[in-house]
Give the backbone structure.
Amino acid sequence: MADRYLHFTGTPPGRFLTRRLGLPRPAPLRRFGPAATDLGGPVILRTAGRSALDGPLPLDEPVTPDGRDGTAGTAGTEAEAPRPAAVVLDATGVAGVADLAGVHSALHPLMRSLAPGGRIVVVGARPSADDHHQAAAQQALEGFTRSLAKETGGGRTANLVRLTSPDPAAAASTLRFLLSPKSAYVSGQVLELTGTAPAAAADPARPLAGRTALVTGAARGIGAAVAEVLARDGARVICLDVPGAGADLERTADALDGTALPLDITTGDAADRIVAALPGGELDVLVHNAGITRDRRLANMSADRWSQVLDVNLAAVLDTTDALLKRGAVRRGGSVVATASIAGIAGNTGQTNYAASKAGVIGLVRSLAPRAAAAHGVTVNAVAPGFIETRMTAAVPLFIREAGRRMNSLAQGGLPVDVAEATAYLADPASGAVNGQVLRVCGQSLLGA
Ligand code: NAD
């Protein structure tokens, strides 16, 4: 269902009316594609105080050198420079309230010049359990970044990346994602990176080359986009969906030279049939995307509606993950990406079953991630989509649909490709330091944290 309001606000009468009436003014987002492979402008690196990192942050883009004292340039030099497309603030050394002044002085002068669609990435450290001054200052960065994401407008985003070690290389794939058009609908988020990161692939444009991915619920919507993006990144993709999805599933798989696997993920022998369909019985990327809704308030919800949702959205995710990991069918360096939802974080009227299942996915990810990394060398993360324009949300009544679209900092719904890009970032072998994370792809929805 097209977002006509977004189109209207891009026209001269639309601009006039929305300004006069104080209505939301969504900016068209610049997404990754042949004509938009990067942000199209300079990336500025700033430091608040002294960096706590062992070396410089790894940035692919040209970097405007930073005066290491955390102060910004003069107004004159800022005005002459081309408009920055992004600013990265190294705030890892912020260890007390006084250091927060360096955050203000580093970013304040840039706020009026950051290009529309620009990115702000704050890199911090994990709040300390032993030093409450450091913890207060580092936690302050979260409130700061989330507020900046809400006020910056113009399709700009702001996100916080926390490093748990002084090795800046751990942030490489995350910075590459956040500083690209691939993260257009990711804003106001906090990602915590643990451990170290393996080197990036030989061909960064095809980080999944030679790898096998399985995507459940791939016949349409978000799953079809995930399959497409993983194939673009070089993966051989097996597209799984219910036998009833028939022609849609064939079409998706054919378009990306993949394999169609018609299978209901809740059937008892699903894991056996998946393994039988994998070349060599192994895969590198397992994406649990299949999901259903059966909405009713609890007072009106039958036990059937309850269990259908829990079976598809949670039990099948647990069972398939367990079975594949137990057999060693997920190769070392691989990844599991499950699909949660902001409903699993914030809750939603009429969705006790759905929200329970999606919150369950978050519980699974947080608990399994460290053990899967230790035992199998596999990362486990989740994407948590907000309002995404798919057949699932097209079925939502008009008023609620319109509210869902606008109630986020970017004032628009996301597209399936936004979730797909986030999934591909988590599946990238270079993202080994990203584990146990729940990445919301929601334009900083007002629902939930
Ligand atoms: P969709 O209904 O368009 O697609 C879901 C796909 O999963 C369908 O092709 C369906 O046939 C398949 N599927 C359902 N049950 C299955 C089963 N038992 N075995 C195999 N395949 C099965 O939904 P979507 O909007 O693309 O959502 C994809 C995922 O994202 C779901 O997990 C959903 O809960 C989640 N999500 C979507 C949104 C959104 O706004 N669209 C928001 C948050 C989370």
The longest helix spans residues 352-376. The domain at 212-441 is CATH 3.40.50.720 (Rossmann fold). The two ends are 27 Å apart (CA to CA). The chain has two domains: 31-193, 212-441.
